[in-house]
Amino acid sequence: MQSGSCTVFYGPFISIEGRVPEGTIAVLITLAELDHHLRGATNVRIPRDDLFHSGWMASLTITEWRDWYLPRLTISIITKDRPESLSRLLHSVSNGRFFGDHVDIRIHLEQSTDHQTVQKVKDFKWDHGSLFIHHRVIHGGLLPAVVESWYPHTNDSYGLLLEDDVELSPLFYAWIKMTLLRYRYGDNRGRYLQLFGISLYQQKNIELHLDGRKPFNAPALFLDNGHPPITPYFSQIPCSWGAVYFPEHWAEFHDYLGIRFSEIAFPIDQVIVPDVRSNRWSKSWKKYFIELVFLRGYVMLYPNFPDFISLSTNHLEVGSHVKVRSKAKQDAFMVPLMQLSSDSKTTVNLLDLPNETLPSTLPVLNLTGSLTTFKELEAIGAARRSELVECEMSRTFEATGLLCLFNKKAADSQSMAGVGRH
Questions:
Q1: What SUPFAM superfamilies does the database record attribute to this sequence (predicted)?
Q2: Which of 8-22, 29-43, 100-114 has the lowest mean pLDDT?
Q3: CA dist., res. 28 & res. 68, Å (int)
Q4: 210: how many CB neighbours lie within 10 A of its CB?
Q5: Per residue in 318-347, pLDDT tens?
Q6: 151 in the Ramachandran plot: left (φ > 0), alpha (ψ -120 to 50) or beta?
Q7: What percent of the chain is helix, strand and coil (3-state, nearest 5)?
């Protein structure tokens, strides 16, 4: 176990049980097929088929192991009329390694979903948790389809949001579990409050420059500025091509979006973030999430493995935001997926990290891909906020405090009344 003081007992369970005093073992790791438990310990049971792909677990600290069962992930899939794309996504989800965890799936069908897509959903089987199907009776569009696809139950609830043109690596869940335990639990609990989510996708482009999309190469940027070239990093850009969103931030976003659509704080066409292309994305949920991220100084964790190898990729299918599927666009956005070590000759794996563990200190990037700091992001957001509203910054995850709407009950009723108009 990484960076922890612990004693490891290895051997048949019955011999361990008989010679180790009760309460001295913090974590018991066994095969799922063995029904062994120790009172007072976190009992982690790994399916035999997943054991060969569990090397990343060696990087966990003892306190992270003890929190193994706290994070609960829900996968939310948004689909409409791309049955073959949906089939590819569902196949990649089914091929994931879940290491004995319970994971629920919610599939959201638009009102105009075609028969083939509905049939793909009916044929889908899921053995790792519960499966829920939602079907709209009134057309909503992509913005509400994404935003309403998941809402947290507790602050240990996490949502993986997937549109149907995404495909996942079989190790996507391992990346999610490893990063959640490192940056949300264990000894780091409460340390990274600005972190709003975890991307599975590795950026090849930055889309928010006013003069258009620009290629982006994180290793080259970091090497030029004295950082390890192959290291994860924090970025203000929200990912929509396979990403986990955190409960506090997503709930705040729901409130923020309701307030924005109600126009009780300022007009819907009010520019919140200066000099970014997302101001033109009037039908995209990301436009409004970027506003919240900018005002608060929030960031997302991104992977950064060699050769852009990622835990998700986007096939750039024609849809709401993609009108032409050219080869140039596909080359600009599609990335190779990390494979199981037995399925590929590549040596890239989840522990291709500095010192084979997730670092506590990472590079921080702003919305246009420039290096910055947490303090600078907070200062820039606070300065812009002071130009828009007049009250002290709220440090909680409350959009009403952020926008100086202190009569929360009135703000809630007005925001709900305004949502349907957009």
A1: Nucleotide-diphospho-sugar transferases
A2: 8-22
A3: 11
A4: 11
A5: 655 555 566 778 888 899 999 998 655 557
A6: beta
A7: 35, 15, 50
Give the sign of the dihedral formed by CA 311, CA 341, CA 53, CA 86: positive
Residue 126 CA to residue 133 CA, distance in Å, equals 12
67 HSE (CA, 13 A, CB side)? 20
Residues 38 and 45: their CA atoms lie apart, in Å, by 12
Angle in degrees, CA 190, 383, 379, rounded to 5:
40
Per-residue tokens: 11: 């051997």
Report the candidate in 362, 357, 388, 386 with the shortest Cα–Cα distance to residue 374. 362
What residues contact 252, with CB distance under 8 A and at least 6 apart? 292, 397, 398, 399, 402
Give residue for tokens 């996968």. Answer: 75
Supply the Cα-derived Rg of the chain in whole angstroms.
22
pLDDT in tens, 214-244: 999 999 999 999 999 999 999 999 999 999 9
d(CA 350, CA 306): 11
Per the CB < 8 A criterion, the answer to whether 172 and 96 are in contact is: yes
Q: How many CB atoms lie within 10 A of CB 360?
A: 12
User: If we measure between CA atoms, which residue out of 336, 297, 73 comes closest to residue 201?
Assistant: 336
- What per-residue string of b and e applies to 169-190 under the rule 16 or more CB within 10 Å gives b? bbbbbbbbbbbbbbbbbbebee
Q: Which residues contact 42 (CB under 8 A, 6 or more apart)?
A: 26, 27, 28, 65, 66, 67, 68, 69
Longest dimension (CA), the chain: 69
Q: What is the mean pLDDT of residues 155-164?
A: 98
* Coil, helix or strand at residue 56: helix
Whether residue 410 has pLDDT greater than 50: no
Q: Checking phi first, is residue 193 left (phi over 0); if not, alpha (psi -120 to 50) or beta?
A: alpha
In DSSP terms, 77 is beta-bridged to 107, 162
C-alpha span between 313 and 336 (Å, rounded): 7
Q: Cα separation of 281 and 262, whole Å? A: 18
* Amino acid at residue number 243: A
One-letter amino acid at 251 equals A
